[in-house]
Structures are given as structure tokens and as C-alpha cells.
Amino acid sequence: MTAQAIPVRRMPFSVPDTADFHPVYLAGNAGFSYAMTGMGLYVALLEPFIVKSVRRVLDRVTDPGLREAADRFSRQEAQHYQQHERFNTLFFSRDYPGLRERYERLRGDFERFLAEKDDRFRIGFVEGFEANTTQGALSLLGRGLLRHPATDKALGSLWEWHMLEEIEHRNIAFDLYEHLFGGWPYRALMCWRAQHHMATFIDDVTAIMNPRDIREFGDICRITSKDRTLRLLSRAVPRVKSMLPGYSPHRYELPAAVQRLADRLTSQATSVS
Ligand SMILES: [Fe+2]
Ligand SMILES: [Fe+2]
User: Fold this and answer.
1) Closest ligand to Cα 81
2) Average pLDDT over residues 38-49
3) In total, how many domains does the chain have?
4) Domain extent for 192
5) Span 208-223, mean pLDDT?
6) What is the Å distance from ligand 1's center to 136 Cα?
7) Is 260 inside a domain boundary?
8) CA nearest 197: which of 42, 32, 34, 24?
């Protein structure tokens, strides 16, 4: 992926009215909807951490192409978290007891990583997350769940754009880690660490939100044992793959639909740089 293939799009998304919001907003599936709600909350704090972590090492990147790509990667992530902060008002407007506290605890984790950990940890952590989202994005877009008839159009579009750009910048954190540090065992450790950190947060916020939503909206919000099994599998497979010594995001063959989606989103953007 060249730097030019990482366009920074500013998107004109509208956040739905809080009064119209239903917690099962993706494909009529509770397990999937809560997983993406948790992810939307997680990335609003993770992605500022990505931007800061990458900017701290940019001056040490001696390959000009990688330096430009890393700058574009961090600018895409900056757009993502700003959009998610807007959409996350939907979840916070429901005033779930304990949600704000869990979110602030997550903010504290990233502040601590910035203050106390080293660049190798931070870039390793970023790559651990990116190795997961690339696989999740290809699966999500391939299954068409974000354009399902029972998917909320605004939230589906938000995630479609975000997942597409995760695919566009899939190589950059990996290349940064290899360029600056290298070393498989530590990369594998950080894949485990980052993906476990995200999964724990998503499980915690699901446990906070779900019981109240079941009381208010009924059984459609109930997460089934099949949902739980799928959630475990959708975590375990990418985690193991990303931890293997031979893992590289450069190996992915992208379906033609990915480029068509990229072109459509570029045409819908209010600006592209
Ligand atoms: Fe992102
Ligand atoms: Fe990303």
C-alpha cells in the first residue's frame, strides 16, 4: 500500500436522534451490535493514543515513503475517533450506571501507556490492534452486515467507512514496528496484550448496558449462546493468526469490492487530502 492509497477523507455523517436510537442497530443482531458499540467506545480513546504514539516516533523513521504513510495513517485515525466521539453520544445519552466510570478507566490506561511505557510497547500495542481490525474489517465488509436491511443506515455507514480505512492502512503499524524495532516474540506478545485489552473492555461495557436494554427493549437485546460462541471465535482466530511468526498484513489479497467502496466513499467525502 503506497502513501497515496491512504486518503484522508472527511465524511459528512449525521448522528441519529437519541430518541430514535435502538441498542440493536446492526443486522438485527444483539451480539454483533454490542460488540460494535463496545468497539466504538474503545476506539474513541485508543485512536488518540495511536495518533500520539505514531507522532512520537515519526522523526526516527528514515524511509520517507513509510514516514508519509505513517503520517496519513495517523490522520485517518484522527478522523475516526472524532466521528466516533460524535456517535458515542448516543450511548452516553442513555446514562447506563457505570458506563462513564469504565470509559474513564480506559482513558487512564492509555494515559499511563503514554506516560510510563516506551515506544516499542506503544507501537507494538498499536500493531496488535491493527492486526486484529484488518481481519475483522475484511470479514465484516465481506459478509455485508453493515448494509443489511436491519442495519441503521447512519451507524452502518460510519462503520463501513472506518473498516475500509482500516484495510487501507493495514500495513503501516506493522511496517513501523519492523522498521524501528522488529522481533517476533515481542510483536506476538503485544498482539495478545492489545487484543485482550480491547476484548475485556467490550465485555465489560456489554455487561453494563445489556441488562438494562433487555428490561427496556425486550428479548431482541438478549445475547444468545450462539452469539457468545461467535464472539469468542471472532476473537480467537484473528488473535492466533496475528501472533504467528509468519504473519504479515502485506499478504492479503483484497477483493475488488474494497476498491469500489473506497471510490464511493471518496466521492461522498466533503474533502479528501
Ligand atoms: Fe481507525
Ligand atoms: Fe487503524
Assistant:
1) 1
2) 98
3) 1
4) 25-265
5) 97
6) 12
7) yes
8) 42
Instruction: Report whether 241 contacts 247 (CB < 8 A).
Output: yes
- Between strands 9-10 and 271-272, the pairing is antiparallel
Is the model's pLDDT at 1 over the cut of 90? Answer: no
Q: Does residue 218 fall inside a structural domain?
A: yes
In the reported structure, the alpha carbon of residue 28 is separated from the centroid of ligand 2 by a whole-number distance in angstroms of 26
CA of 218 to the centre of ligand 2 (A): 34
pLDDT in tens, 83-107: 999 999 999 999 999 999 999 999 9
- Residue 272 inside a domain? The answer is no
43 C-alpha to ligand 2 centroid (Å): 9
pLDDT at residue 4 tops 70: no
Asked whether residue 6 is assigned to any structural domain, the reply reads: no
Distance 168 CA to ligand 1 centre (A): 10
Region 241-252: mean pLDDT is 96
The residues, ordered by sequence, that sit 6+ positions from 89 with a Cβ below 8 Å of its Cβ are: 15, 18
Ligand nearest to the CA of 249: 2
| CATH code of the domain in which 63 resides | 1.10.620
**pLDDT value for 5:** 87
> Quick one: which ligand is closest to 126's CA?
2
Q: Are 92 and 100 in contact (CB under 8 A)?
A: yes
